[in-house]
Amino acid sequence: MIYPWQADDWNRLQQLRGHWPHALLLHGQAGIGKLRFAQHLAQGLLCEDQRENGEPCGACVACNWFVQGNHPDYRIVVPEALAAEAGLGYGADDKADKADKADADEGKKTRAPSKEIKIEQIRGLLDFVGVGSHRGGARVVVLYPAEGLNIAAANALLKTLEEPPAGVVFLMVSARVDRLLPTIISRCRQWPMSMPSPEAATQWLAAQGVSEAPALLAEAGGAPLTALALASDENRTLRDWTLKQLAAGPECDAFACGEALQKLPVPLVLGWLQRWMYDLLAQRAAGAPRYFPQASAALTRCASQADASAFARFMRTVTRQRAVENHPLNARLVFEELFLGYRELFA
Ligand SMILES: [Zn+2]
């Protein structure tokens, strides 16, 4: 099933049915359910007793195969890291699987699962699109996330996107079209996915048993799935503690931050800091924070105390740190330095 806020996208998309594009690029903010939408769309295209609005019937042999994860005319291609994490490997080509596995065995213990879609995976995929349909209907490929394609993989895919075999439909899903090769984008029909209205998102979160839905939704930039993940985030206590430190402005204890946060990934803490800084600026400029509305009073106080030029300097430091955040760094030192820098804003 698609999410309730996607009904409009679904219905508008059905207008393409007479001349369905061979490659569709579904893009939009992370955390709004684009992957599930793509998978439902794939099921609809493969269903052998499709409803009038393109909905899969849920009962035919094709639908059953799809749900069980073994429709012979369907492939989903995801980075290894995601396949391991979310069990999304379904339908991945055997050969690519084996290649990856051999790779993994060789580099055991030292090699982290790849976050990229690699050329071996695309080669496996091209074997799949090269043979005919098993059921005589469409063959569907979901690529997620499309920005995960590394250069070699993207180039290998390009030829097929230029001259696609009849009946093959590519559904590319991306939250970062700015990271896609322009040549890939130009061969796809682009489809921007709508953001849910705050009402629809809040209602859905409440139905999932999430309390404080509006605050979490604000922090998630309006993306309901991100808000849901935040609700069950094991680091939430530390995050709330960090926000209190930031709210303390000149009293922020940088060394305590280094100590308490040292086990957390640098990008996670940088994300908190960056959103807090964004809100300080928003509070100052527009009188309304975006991510932490519940901290509005503290933001107002901090914004009035901070020095404007120090502010700009500190933002540059944070941005610089983001650029190297995936490199192995001493997290404790990085955090100490950042929070010391933060405290100096109020000196
Ligand atoms: Zn069906």
From TrEMBL:
Keywords, in A-Z order: Nucleotidyltransferase, Transferase
Pfam families documented for this protein: DNA_pol3_delta2 (PF13177)
GO-annotated cellular components: DNA polymerase III complex
Sample GO molecular function, one term: DNA-directed DNA polymerase activity
Gene3D superfamilies named among the record's database cross-references: P-loop containing nucleotide triphosphate hydrolases
Top class in the EC scheme: transferase
Keyword 4Fe-4S set for record: no
GO BP terms in the entry: DNA-templated DNA replication
Entry's EC annotation: 2.7.7.7
PANTHER family in the cross-refs: DNA POLYMERASE III SUBUNIT DELTA, REPLICATION FACTOR C / DNA POLYMERASE III GAMMA-TAU SUBUNIT
Protein name per Swiss-Prot or TrEMBL: DNA polymerase III, delta prime subunit
Source organism (scientific name): Paraburkholderia graminis (strain ATCC 700544 / DSM 17151 / LMG 18924 / NCIMB 13744 / C4D1M)
